[in-house]
Amino acid sequence: MRFYINTEHLRNEIEYPGRYKSQNLIKSSGLVFLTLLTFLLVFKPFGIYDPELKMHYFFICFLHAFAPALILFTYFRTLNYFRKLKNHAQWTLLKEYIHIGVLLVFIGTTSFLMRDVLYTNPNNWSWHYLFEEIRNCFVAGIFFYFFLRLSSFYFESKKGSPFVLQFIPLAVKPEKTVLISNLFISTQVKQDDFFLDMDQLLFAKADGNYIELTKSNDLQITTEVKRISLTQFETQVTDYPHLFRCHRTYLVNMFKIEQVSGNSQGYELSFKETSIKIPVSRKQIDNFNNCYQELRNKHIA
């Protein structure tokens, strides 16, 4: 059986993480420094031979914690400068992992260069210790990276702050599209009946006994108001499983969603053509996830 790993989510564009933005770098670097210092003092993870120490163990831990924090600050401060010159180049998980890997190599190399200052050992300048310092840096660095990421997700969820979720936009192959795109919608007043191109619909918003239909045609956003309630509209589009009632006041076209962010309190849906974000109520999260998975299995798999 062939081994397969889906790497599509690694290449999808995501929002540049706030922890790397210039205004948050001091806070992020300080957190890394305190976490590493505490860990090194409490656990002594890689073994210490006391006769080799040139100074008190606390100061050695201080330098081993301070150097990564300083390199983190300098590296992403420089990266942010060049990103600004390129007018905010796109960011992906793959790019983040590559930058973290490069950062860990820099930190490991710096630890190697500090050995003569910290330890009395005739083999300080050897390939063995260069490899050992970089290896130790990767072992500890990868652990702390994912530990801090998971901790960040947990606390953001607890305080209700949204974070970007892994979401692969849906796409339908033309040969699988069997529904009529131009649907006739009847209202309580015959003269208000209308046709709606379902392929253009982004979402519908309830406004009392009216709905606002937001559509996209050749990247042009238009909004129309129709005299029909959202519930009445929903009953006439039940043959279109990709139209989902995500909130009491919103119905969305699942095929038009570009990104999902959120937490335990609910999701927010983003579209490529507009900056408007549509909420998914807390009680609809499971239904939204199920609908997305069913559509993905039906039209993608």
Automatic annotation (TrEMBL):
It comes from Flavobacterium pectinovorum. Keywords: Membrane, Transmembrane, Transmembrane helix. It holds the Pfam family LytTR. One of its GO terms (molecular function) is DNA binding. This is LytTR family transcriptional regulator. It comes from the Bacteria. The chain crosses the membrane at residues 29-49, 55-76, 97-114, 126-148. Residues 185-294 form the HTH LytTR-type domain.
